[in-house]
Amino acid sequence: MTNGWIDIKNTDMMLIMGGNPAENHPCGFKWAVEAKLKRNAKMIVVDPRFTRTAAVADLFCQIRAGADIAFLGGLINYAIENNRIAKDYLVNYTNAAFIIKDGFKLPEDGLFSGFDAATKTYNKSSWNYQEGGNETGKFVPGVAGEQPAHGDEAKAAVMPVSTAAKGAASTPPPPPPPSLPPNIAYDLSLQHPRCVYQLLKQQYSRYTPEMVERITGIPKDQFLKAADLFTSVRTNGDMKKVATIIYAVGWTQHSFGTQIIRTAAMLQLLMGNVGRAGGGVNALRGHSNIQGATDMAGIFDILPGYLKVPSPADKDLKAYLDRITPKPAKPNEWESFNYWSNTPKFMVSFLKAMYGNAATKDNDFAFHYLPKIDRNYSWVEIWNDMYQGTVKGLFAFGMNGVMIGPDSQKNIDALKKADFLVVCEIYPDETSAFWQAPGITPDDVKQINTTVYRLPGAGFAEKDGTFVNSARWLQWKNVALPPPGDCRLDQDILAQIFLKIRELYQKEGGKFPDPILKASWAYTLPEHPSLSEVAKEINGKALADISDEKLGVSLKAGQQLPGFAMLRDDGTTSSANWLYCGSWTEAGPMMQRRGTDDPSGLGIYQNWGWSWPANRRVMYNRASCDLAGKPWDPTRSQVWWNETAQKWVGNDVPDFKPDSKPEEHMGPFIMNPEGVGRLFVPLGAMADGPFPEFYEPIESPIENPLHPGQSNNPVVKKYKTAMDKYGTAKEGYNIICTTYRLTEHYHYWTKNNPMNVELVPEPFVEIPAELADQMGIRGGEKVKVTSARSDYIAKAMVTKRIKPMMVDGKKLYQIGMPIHWGFLGISEGEGRTAKTPANLLTPTVVDPNAYTPEFKGFLVKLEKV
Amino acid sequence: MATSADRFVHRSNPIDRMGRTVVYTGELLRHPVYTRFLHWMVGIFFFLALLSGFGIYLPWIFRFFTPLFGGGATTRFLHPWFGLAFVFFFALQAINWLQVMRWTPDDSRWMKHIKQYVTRSDSVESPETGFFNAGQKMQFWEIVGGCVAYVITGVIMWLPEIFGRILVAISYVVHDISALVMLFGIFFHVYLSTFGEPGTIQAMTRGTVSEGWAWTHHPSWYKAVTGRDPAEALEEAKRRNTPPPLPPRTL
Amino acid sequence: MSDRGTLRIQQISAHPGPVAGEGVQRQDKVCKLIDTTTCIGCKACEVACVEWNDMPFQTTYFDNTYQTMPDTDWNYWNLIKFNEDQHDNGSFAWLMRKHQCMHCEDPGCLRACPADGAIVQYSNGIVDFQQEHCIGCQFCVSGCPFNIPKFNPNTKKVYKCTLCSDRVGAGLEPACIKACPTGCLHFGTKDDMKFLAENRASQLREVSGFQNAGVYDPDTIGGTHVIYVLHDATKPERYGNLPAKPRIPLSFTVWKDIFKPIGLFGAMLGFVGVVMHYVFEGPRREQPAPPVVRIDPPPPPAGKEN
């Protein structure tokens, strides 16, 4: 979340899409209700189903699963057409005025400039700003040349998939990407035809209400109602009101998920809603600590604190830091903080935390101990590799891999080929019992040679430590109960495995034992590391006496660091995650604070827990003020420029260089080298385009109405094992299916808990009443849902909450099912439905930016059992 | 009336041959053992149901009844079973008496003289009065109707989940009214079988009545079982009957 | 709200005589406010109720709905009713209403109950069942216009929501209120809750376009200590058969309080009748009647007087 849970109460308008917070985040949803009650805020819900959230919304639109970019693009078009945009904000805080290089092409035919059909990747060199400084007023309409045609690329786009796929198998490492120009050309009048604003306008002018209706299935008048309502906060450009966008995995779990979120971010920038109380783009995380997992490098291509992992091409630390540290790139007349320029400090401190005294200046701070990632090791790839026999073993902690999918059957078959599987869980789960999956006979079991180890872990209430919530708050929790029986704390299990491995390395040597032998393990009880020690280590400490005059801080060696501003790149500080630096200082554990004072009434609660970065509650909050540093809405003052003190002050911690005068025109988006928000994403940040373009899900009942020749996301990779099948409407898979969670259950745990099972006892399939009537299905009767992968059998829930929809002139039906059941648990017992892991149905295909599988919006057949 | 009387006289029915009834000279068999057994079963369960019912009906008056049955919950538990037992035995009695309880033109004529009956203006009942008089028959049929009402409404109240609250609320009133009517009637039954018409209760204890009782209260039945004219029998008895000597003075 | 003495007894079912301690202390009426317009049907209240009251779990069955079970049960006092409400004009709503005891000001269950002390109404308005006095007759079930009391066939007793009288008596809010994540549940004095509810209803009318929004506090039973804010107060039936005009059946008011004693008096007239008959008319003896012999009182024995 750019903002936070409580901050939602400050909003005037909510667009909830790709998420169902009332269902999945009922406690946080109180703030949405609060906004409705206290501010008369409006709530628009866009979802494939009429959800629990829709039940309390002011306006509901039923959208075809996966059509979100079309809807949001339509909103952008509507806002521009009706002048419901934040002009000053746009010009000064975003890259709207920046001029894009000649040669960049919009995807009228479905492809941006630079597409290589053989490798299914883009050469992104044309996705860049033009060099040149202030061009304002220099452009005279009618003189500018036409966009160059890109006939060759258009032809490439319609090449048969098989040819394109052959190339993808051996992707060469991309050449070093071109960099941003140091002095970016811009046109403050936004008239230049290649300025971002004009390109944006042109790109989304195709997303007319009629086109939105054709793609999304939302009738035009209903879309216009939603568009009018949402953009009404910016009527006549008035900046007082604020709108927020709230989403969850309904957006991320698509083969173009990142681009959906981008579209939302662009809409919010366009309307000047980012950085402001009650605004922002707010991701609701699906687990209590998924934010913490991401911050601490839960994904293969980042290190803690979102530092990029080294690649084999990074010969030494310097080469690596040069590659990943962004250089300033901005109009010369403007300032940019470019906070990522501190990357070397973060990285060296991280290495010091990892390897302690073994990391010295002479050995590049043990940079070469870090693994160098040569390719994609994301979730789906791991299982694909295991399925193909190259991954031999798996440690599964805190997740039920078989059930999570996608394509559970493929994961089950992959585990059959593994040598070993270690599962640490609080219940016997489907992953550790994969050999009991439906369809596996006792004879089959004899053929499975996988050794399965079950480790009894501890539940969340049996451990202390922090959770990092969606609002980026670190909150410490205490132990409620000791772990029962032989269960052990996760950190104890991990520590003991690590120490055992280290012992083996010590005894037996090995190819490269140093990273293991020299890893820092300075805990009082090495076999039982206390989480407070780990938390202190993550915050980091001074390794020598250091001082910073400007900050007025001086620290003795061994003292906890007060914040990431104190980090050094000379090895005198350590911090395992620079973002968390400041969470456990000399003053104590900041995440354990429980102060409830909120003088501003904005729900900032500066003394409750601790929020990264630097205890800021709303990110980019400089953007909540106008150019002169005065809040757009004085009733919601977050930060402001104090002329007397010559400093940025406020109720929240300013997310800005504290002494940068407004006249310096420093951009509020300090993590971007440009300092401004990106309507256009230059160069390599996105794999599939600098602007989001609507593509059909991999399994779609229609051809993309925008460009039937390029229906899907062109850079998306389909897998090619025997298990990876993709269905089409021609083969009879003509019902759109989506998966989701229920408020009554938590993933695959609570099916073991009688109270939760009492609330919702059995799996089911939600079927529109009209479709059920046609097929003669009555509520409670068993139905079989079949995808190209497998099938799923459960009882039908015939509902009026899903309506048939007209998409591109075709009548389409959507169905959906909750994911909470598998083949172990109370409700999976005798006499109940057995074949119920929902992810048996889902396809193995991922978003090219975040590698999230496409769990939402795949094709199925439906029949009565 | 001959048919019904025959039944008892000749003891043709195997059920009626159960047990033994001692009939002395000058007496007539009125109720065989089976009938008497049923009567007292009906009577016992009627009063058990009545008393347990009262505890629930108006607890602010009759709260002292519930402890008799082991407290409120037990009282509530037993009441329907008492009621069922009452209805069961009465149903057997009703089958037993179905024939003799049939309404006849004689009964209609009897009803016309009800005032004389109540005020005792005749020393004996009208000659057409058979085994049961019309009043007894009326009470019998009231109890039959009452029992039907009890069973229907009682089952509804017993199983409210099935029948729903509106039916229960109606049943509750009907059940009560039925009980009140029956209670009202029972006072007359008890009175007339004891104080009101002495010699009657013997019919339900030993099973016999004196011939005099028979020609007085049920002349037509007397005629049927003895073949003698009740009026003549009465006259003859009067003639035979000389005033008894004065009791000896003992004081 | 005062947090002391909230459990003072105000009425006792079928109990003769006055209530001990009556009128000793002034007592605020408590009230639960349920804003159905902000209820998301998350069932936290259901779980809180089961857990606080330590209810045994039961097996439920899929019934083509998100609703946990068709109706409340003896061990499930709090149930959110889900209703898919399709209108002819195409508009659609998914109505969710937390269903539990309404704690009527004039409780039909209490009126119907024949067991001394089985149902009490506290002076704060809470209507509570005292199972140790319950005789299991289930008259309360038919007395209740909301179909709340539920019979446990094993214990032969009737159970229902207590409005957490144990918590309220200790100055706490009911468990469901405590658990509600969206704040659609409120608890306080009746006056405060009415004020809050009316404000919300007028906000719904004026801002959200629900012209018929209103507060459900039916006066046919003297008001309730659980009140609702409804989007459409003119049609409460849409919210899972919430009666527009809940009534206690006449059999539990007119019949029980007036005609029952009269009926009993009528039946007793039979007794009076036969006694009078014996006195005024005398018995009919078998004929011929024994001769009447006059017995003179014996003369005083001679010689015994001084």
What this model shows, in words?
The complex is a heterotrimer of chains A (865), B (251) and C (306). Chain A has 865 residues and is an alpha/beta fold. Chain A has 24 helices and 31 strands. In chain A, the strands form 11 sheets. A 6-stranded mixed beta sheet of chain A has the order 25-27-26-31-24-30. In chain A, strand 19 (584-585) and strand 20 (588-589) form a beta hairpin. In chain A, helix 4 runs parallel beside helix 12 (257-270), helix 9 crosses helix 10 and helix 16 crosses helix 18. The model of chain A is unreliable at 143-170 (pLDDT under 50). Chain B has helices at residues 2-10, 33-57, 59-62, 72-97, 105-112, 114-119, 134-158, 160-163, 165-193, 202-205, 211-217, 219-226, 230-240, and strands at residues 27-29, 208-210. Chain B has a two-stranded antiparallel ribbon. Helices cover 25% and strands 17% of the residues of chain C. In chain C, strand 3 (79-86) and strand 4 form a beta hairpin. Chain C is elongated and about 110 Å long. Chains B and C meet through helix 3, helix 4, helix 9, helix 11 and helix 13 of B and helix 3 and helix 7 of C.
Please provide a brief summary of the model.
Chain A has 865 residues and is an alpha/beta fold.
The radius of gyration of chain C is 29 Å
Sheet/helix structural class of chain B:
mainly alpha
Strand order of the largest sheet of chain B: 1-2
Helices and strands of chain B, in order, run as: HEHHHHHHHHHEHHH
Helix run count of chain C: 7
**What percentage of amino acids of chain C are in beta strands?**
15-25%
Q: How is this fold's topology laid out?
A:
The complex is a heterotrimer of chains A (865), B (251) and C (306).
Chain A: E1 13-17, H1 21-24, H2 29-39, E2 42-47, H3 52-55, E3 59-62, H4 68-81, H5 87-93, E4 115-116, E5 121-122, H6 151-157, H7 161-168, H8 196-204, H9 209-216, H10 220-231, E6 243-247, H11 249-252, H12 257-270, E7 281-283, H13 290-295, E8 302-303, E9 307-308, H14 317-324, H15 343-355, H16 379-387, E10 393-397, H17 401-404, H18 408-417, E11 420-425, H19 442-447, E12 451-456, E13 465-468, E14 473-477, H20 490-508, H21 514-517, H22 531-539, E15 541-542, E16 546-548, E17 553-555, E18 573-574, E19 584-585, E20 588-589, E21 610-611, E22 639-642, E23 647-650, E24 735-740, H23 754-759, E25 764-768, H24 769-775, E26 782-786, E27 791-799, E28 805-807, E29 810-812, E30 814-818, E31 858-864
Helix pairs in contact in A: 4-9, 4-10, 4-12, 9-10, 16-18
Chain B: H1 2-10, E1 27-29, H2 33-57, H3 59-62, H4 72-97, H5 105-112, H6 114-119, H7 134-158, H8 160-163, H9 165-193, H10 202-205, E2 208-210, H11 211-217, H12 219-226, H13 230-240
Antiparallel strand pairs in B: 1-2
Helix pairs in contact in B: 2-4, 4-7, 7-9, 11-12, 11-13
Chain C: E1 9-12, E2 30-35, H1 44-52, E3 79-86, E4 92-99, H2 108-112, E5 119-122, E6 127-129, H3 139-143, E7 150-152, E8 157-159, H4 165-169, H5 175-179, E9 185-189, H6 190-206, E10 214-216, E11 226-230, H7 250-280
Parallel strand pairs in C: 2-11
Antiparallel strand pairs in C: 1-5, 2-9, 3-4, 5-6, 7-8, 10-11
